[in-house]
Amino acid sequence: MKLTILGCYSATPRTLNNTTSQVLEINNHMFLIDCGEGTQVQLRKHKIKFNRIKHIFISHLHGDHFFGLVGLISTFRLLTREADLHVYGPKGIKEVVILQMKLADSWTNYNLYFHELTSNDSELIFEDEKVEVYTIPLNHRVYTNGFLFKEKTGLRKLDVYAAEKAGINQAYFRKLTQGFDVVNEKGVLISNELVTKAAAKPKSYAFCSDTMYKEDIIPLIQNTDVLYHESTFLEQHRHLAKKTKHATAKEAASIAKQANIGTLLLGHYSTRYNDIGKFKDEAKQLFDNVELAEDGKSFKF
Ligand SMILES: [Zn+2]
Hints:
By secondary structure, this protein is α/β, with parallel strands linked by helices. The protein has 11 helices and 18 strands. The chain has a 7-stranded mixed sheet. Strand 7 (124-127) and strand 8 form a beta hairpin. Helix 10 (249-258) packs across helix 11. The protein is globular, with a radius of gyration of 22 Å. The structure holds zinc ion. Zinc ion (ZN) binds at residues 60, 62, 140, 210.
């Protein structure tokens, strides 16, 4: 998996700071997560091919998370896109996009599908052979979901030499990678573990923004490799976090610790702070493995 941060600041775009948007590359997918104003400029800057984006996940309908969406949809049309586009987001997202298109007497020349979300329970919203995506219901001023991206367990790795030596016909090789024991050419049952190795451990990524401290997401994101958790504020402004339903760096770290996360990635910083290093310092008091999201930075895991 590769995660590229296109923007990770809250509220408004500034000269050097972009609002929320990320691209997650996972098993040949290029998932766009949130689409703040200026996202398409950031995509161009980081040389991400527009036509590879087929699924866009929008957490909530605050402007700093989706004001770039109509522009991107419109640009896709100008680039004569043909591939289908799927947009997942809160109920109302279809209405807001279609109204703008309608008043401009404009429409897409590709199929545009909206998957509107209303549930307050986690649900599976995308699945193929190798990947699944679940919502993570969050607690913010408007209806908001985070998203959990999970690889499925892959096929076992076949040791061809060992399988041939054990006298197993090639016709059974696929069954072996699927974990079955098979019978060799002499009619003897061969145990799967003798000729295969376990598949690589499936990776997972959880995106949680925007939200106040919400402990009931912990079971959903337990043991996730990387958690992006918003930290709009530092503890010194805890009262503001409470009032605006955001989280502090310390609260993000507490969630990461309780959920046994591999790496905590902080972001959605308020632009009132000049030094984002303070977010890391604060989170590290509770949790060791902390990284700071920064516009343009990539993480491989
Ligand atoms: Zn928000």
